[in-house]
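We examine the record.
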Amino acid sequence: MPSTRSEPMSDTPHALNADTHPRVQLSAVRSALQAGHSNVLEVLVRVQGPEVAATAVGAPPAHALARALAIALDASGSMEGRPLAEAKRCAEWLVGRLRPHDRLAVVCFEQSAQLIWPAVEVGNGRAVVQAIRSIETGGATALHDGWHEAATALQGCDVPGLRRVILLSDGEANQGECDPGVIAQHCARWAAQGVSTSTYGLGESFNEELMVAMAREGRGSQYYGHTADDLMLPFEQELQLIDARCMGDVRLSYRVPQGVQVAVLNDLPRHDGVLRLPDVAHGAEAWALLRLTVPAELLPAVGQGLSVLQVTVSGRGAAGDTVLLAPAPLVLPVKAAADWAQCPPDELVQRRLTEVAAAQALERMREAANRGDAAAVQELLRAARAEFGHSDWVQAILASMQQLADREGDVRALSKEMKYSAATLMTRVRASDEQMCLSGGLAEEAVPKFLRRSGLQGRQGQQVA
């Protein structure tokens, strides 16, 4: 929804060292305003983490802090047999990737939730693995109760690093609280208290709307896989991202002159008028894409500048300290039409616009797929391939959609892949030096796994530049 702010704008930012603190960068799709016209322009807001000294890829950086995680494992009747065995294997794999001083709680849930291992230091991991192996299937799916029990287990953990619930389920919430909107809001409230939520869907029967909403409001990440093997890479991506994070609880507010309208184009949670961004990691960026409408009557004379936007970002450092970044202003000069036309569009802003538009196209395809309109899906795919042909990443995603759409009766798989691909395009963290990654300036093995791009979200592989 468009919004208008009219607060007075400040021009007294305070300086921080960009080598050790995150920084805010603003880029407009054009570097000037056109005189005599109302201007509609997109602005990319990038909250970038500082670079760190290189370490072996996959190795925890020197600044990595102890983590407190809680696994909430679905043990309902639908998980009997192979699904539960695969879920246990995922949990055991995660234990093997934790450090001895990390804390881990384990909760299983079916008709009710049970804490089977408290949030204590992992040590060598053998005891918690035995607890995981003891889990057996039961009846219904009290997903909310399981998640809540896991969040509660982390409430009293006094660790300097992150506290996060990792929810793994193959089904729908059908016991206790089942309303996706209510559950997602509970995730948001716990995130505000410092306990975030990531979700992992397994198979083709889980509720992707619920799982994505929980991660979105819970300030975590959302992943899914057809099998346990498909979730190994997401687990590794998440652990790398957790280790690399330098700021969480990221909040973005903006001010514009009275009369300027603002629309937020990518799908970010908003609470009390403040946008919530994903965690910021070293060498990576969280971002927002805004569309400003500047009425012609607000423009000063040609040659003068107009302060169209000021962005303020705050959050918490990796050790929980409060971080307030310097306000970032955007002042654009007013140019006559001929001079304005010579201002080239910003390539990075255009790329993000393409990715957001592709995500919106995927949501329209998903709606058509869910109502059984296969012809509409094919037509939308054809239109998207033509519209977004200049984006290798989007084309790789669309190629995966085409393969799934060509399989008759595979609506569930198609719907999930479209939902997760759209969420990834809309909000996933990007490399701070994205152009370097895209141009092949870095070998793939030198790029952290959480920054690598994939054309298929539910299966490993298909990495694209």
